[in-house]
Predict the 3D structure of the following.
Amino acid sequence: MISGKFAITLHILTLLSKHPEEYLSSEFISASLNMNPVLVRKEIANLKRNNIVESKEGKNGGTRLLRNASDVTLNDVFKMTFDNVTLGYSKNRPNQNCPVGKQINEKLGNLYEDMNLKISKQLKDISLLNFADTF
Amino acid sequence: MISGKFAITLHILTLLSKHPEEYLSSEFISASLNMNPVLVRKEIANLKRNNIVESKEGKNGGTRLLRNASDVTLNDVFKMTFDNVTLGYSKNRPNQNCPVGKQINEKLGNLYEDMNLKISKQLKDISLLNFADTF
DNA sequence: CATACTGTAATATTTATAGTTACAAATATA
DNA sequence: TATATTTGTAACTATAAATATTACAGTATG
C-alpha cells in the first residue's frame, strides 16, 4: 500500500491556491477530500514545517498559502511527502555470504537514485499554479 | 509499505543468470534472499506466467531462465511486478461537487502516466545481463 | 519405493496506513 | 468577558496490505 500523502497534500494546496488570502478551515478542506479533518491538519502541519502555508488558530481561523503558487513546484510537494520513490526492497536482510545477496540492496539503491532524479526533473517543471490552472 | 516483488524478482533473476542451464531450487534461492521458499515459488510462478523461466518438478527440480539474460530488461521485470508507479491517491472518493475533488484523481493520473513513461524508458535501457554483470 | 522437489491453498502474523476521540489552547466577536 | 469556533496534538482503534507459515498433493529421479 502506498500512502496518500502526496495526493492529499497536493489537493490541499490546490484548494488553497484557488482561494489566496483566505483562511480555509480543515473542516472545509476535509469536505472536499472526504476525509477526517484531523488527517488534514496533520498534512497541514507538514506544510507548515516547510513554510509553504501558515495557519491561524481560533474562530475564523484556518490555513492559507505563504508562498505564491507559481513559486511552489510539484517537486517541493514530492520532497515533502516522500523520502524517495522506490520499487521496493526485500524485507529481510539478504544472505551476506552470497555475492548477489551481499550487493543487491546497494545495486537497487543506485537504480532507484537515478529514478528519483528523473522524477524530480519532471516534477520541477510543474508549478502549483500550472497544476491548479488545469482545473 | 511498498511490496518487495520487484526486488525479489530481480534478485531471483540475477541468481538464475549466474547459473544458466542449471535448475536452482526454491530452497537455494530463498537462502540467498533469506526468506520463505513458498514466497520465492510464488514469484517464480509469476515469472513463469511471463515465460521468463521454466521449472521442473520432482527430485533435482528447480527453475532456470528460458530467455537470454541480455534479452530481458528491467522494464520487463517492472511490468511484471507493478501495475505502475504512483505517488498515491487519497483513499476516499473526493467530493464530486467540488471542482477540485471532481478532477483531482484524473489530473494525478495524467501526472503518474508521464512518470511511468520516464521510468520505463530508464529501465528499458538496462538488461538483466547489464544488471547482473555489476555483481 | 524413498527422496527431494514444485504448486498451491488456507491461515496467521506483522506492519503500515487511515480514522476516531478527546481535549487543551487560541482567537474573533457579540 | 463569555461563547463559539477553530487549530494542535496525543492516544487509541480499525482496516488493509504485505509477508510468513503450515500442510499436503503431485511429480520426477535414481
